[in-house]
Amino acid sequence: xxxxxxxxxxxxxxIEWMIVDVATASPRPIADVLxxxxxxxxxxxxxxxxxxxxxxxxxxxxxxxxxxxxPSLAGLAGLFTEEAxxxxxxxAPHGARVLGGGMHPFFAPADAExxxxxxxxxxxxxxxxxxxxxxxxxxxxxxxxxxxFASDDELARLHDAIRLVLPLLPALAAASPFCEGRAxxxxxxxxxxxxxxxxxxxxxxxxxxxxxxxxxxxYEERILAPMYVAIAxxxxxxxxxxxxxxxxxxxxxxxxxxxxxxxxxxxxxxYADVAIVAAASALVRxxxxxxxxxxxxxxxxxxxxxxxxxxxxxTSLDDAxxxxxxxxxxxxxxxxxxxxxxxxxxxxxxEHAAALGVMLDQGPLARRMLRRAPTPDATSLRALCDELAGxxxxxxxxxx
Length: 400
What we know:
The chain has helices spanning 31-34, 76-91, 120-130, 152-165, 170-173, 189-194, 216-231, 270-290, 298-311, 319-324, 335-345, 353-362, 365-372, 378-394, and strands at 12-21, 45-48, 51-55, 61-66, 96-99, 142-148, 178-179, 182-183, 250-253, 258-265. By secondary structure, the chain is an alpha+beta fold. The protein has a single domain (12-384), classed as Creatine Kinase, Chain A, domain 2 (2-Layer Sandwich). Strands 1, 2, 3, 4, 5, 6, 9 and 10 form an eight-stranded antiparallel sheet that branches. A two-stranded antiparallel ribbon has the order 7-8. β9 and β10 form a beta hairpin. α4 (152-165) crosses α8 (270-290). It is globular.
């Protein structure tokens, strides 16, 4: 096994897309098409140079990821855009293509197909325990950012910084305002559903914003062990009792020595996905390197996160929020205003400026989707899907 990377020496990025019918925009359960080798074998992952394609729980979802940690985020948006085009080329004979966004806007998932091939015992176990043919399970597309650590001290510092950043991310990344053809009243419906979909065993997701930890042993004692105990009566074969069961908004992956951030909705184009990842990475790095006291209380962070799912960049910040976020060193009236201050203080590379400028000036993708379809119906939502699929194929931001 290779030596673990130290803080910010690598970046693992994963993006999920839905496979949809070109004519109807309805999901198509044909991810197997993209994961079949030239010899005709359906595999879990296909390596493609600097990228990899892999399956997900639902047969209509495909994931593209960096093929191991990338040394920087430079050029990843272009790489992922080319992968989307390659997927579209493979799907075209089947009348299908890939679509971004945090949730499909009119899909009713009761009849969704789960992945039927290798490792489907895991997916069957999830379905048996939680009932996984629902929103937050088979109707979601997210972006995951993996940031490495090499020691207990690095884990504690990284985890502390990430806990502060998690409630801020929906202000940039909310991209799921519709559910089953209607405006949900939330800008990040994906995460609202996600935080409830394992309520049968609440220890699995916790309150999404994780508890503070001081190293691996502390993490295993405070987070993993209670989760395994709680799931055991529902999982007598022990299929789910692994660290990946943890569904908090940021989870320690000791198998890869990284903390994985999971609260970013997939966007309309990788140029937006990677811009948000870059903003989050720059802020987390700035907090870690500033060596401030980041001992923020967990419950106020969780409360702010929940409010941000509704209002995103318009979420107001009161004195209690400012006390909880004191480690940021910035005060602002809303999350949108706070991000303007933070991006000025901890700027990511210039290649991400244009995409972040659209988010700051016109709101997150969810806000722009609502502007295009203020009174959603079948026709307007199919047209919206067509526009978003075009943005993914062309590498363009959605500006209504």
